[in-house]
Amino acid sequence: MPRDNSEQPSTDATSVIEIRDLHKSYGALEVLKGVDLVAPRGHVVSLIGSSGSGKSTLLRCANLLEESQQGDIRFEGEPIKWKGHGLNRHPADRAQVTRIRTNLSMVFQQFNLWSHMTILQNVMEAPVTVLGRDKAEVEEKAREYLAKVGIGDKCDVWPAQLSGGQQQRAAIARALCMEPKALLFDEPTSALDPELEQEVVKVIKDLAAEGRTMIIVTHDMRMAHDVSDHVVFLHQGLIEEEGAPAELFGNPKSERLKQFLSHSQ
Ligand code: ADP
Ligand code: MG
Questions:
Q1: What is the Å distance from ligand 1's center to 118 Cα?
Q2: Domain named ABC transporter: which ranges (predicted)?
Q3: The whole model's pTM is what?
Q4: Domain spanning 15-116+183-263, CATH architecture
């Protein structure tokens, strides 16, 4: 099924992230084979696809945790400066990389909270140590974000004392405390039991309703349907189909997407 380019969101400097024709290989394995991904400001883009299709790799390339061999990545219209080309391509400007990475906060499947720090300390850590912000101001913000995700009473406990759903909400508060331009979620509910999953889905829905820019890799088709402005179906390192959620889920065109959705219910 050829891609219908008319369904891509329009692009301009109001996009927080804009990726064009991205190619990424690990050795001989080409994982991304020319992928576009645009996150316009205030939009939610969901990435769906089978395990191994390249979703995590694409997110990691977007915030420069991974290098890529070919293609254009822009942050708020500003192109990444590269040094070299092909397999020898590297970001040229460390300050640019740091600025972009701190503006694209990631939330991972496995929360990754520091076990030796309280929840409050976890949320305060990066804004204080990486961004050098004032500790008292960060603490005030951290408490606000923890209250926002519904665990304002858990500031002084250790991560191990929280349920998985609470830990993931703490991880979301930690990402928010960086006050990033966009949030990138990699399967944020996959490690959770179904009843805990819904706590986290609710927080993500609230963030979407606030108009936050987000890219969400998820296996949760209901959440993708409910929160997204645009859904991208990745298959073996290429975009097989993309579009508005009602259209993509209600009227899938490619056989691969139909098959994928039939296994995801
Ligand atoms: P998804 O998130 O869609 O499940 P990934 O982006 O994690 O897919 O992986 C895509 C492909 O890249 C898989 O074949 C995976 O084994 C491979 N891959 C991912 N990370 C690495 C790595 N660091 N080194 C080598 N291969 C990798
Ligand atoms: Mg993955």
A1: 32
A2: 17-261
A3: 0.93
A4: 3-Layer(aba) Sandwich (3.40)
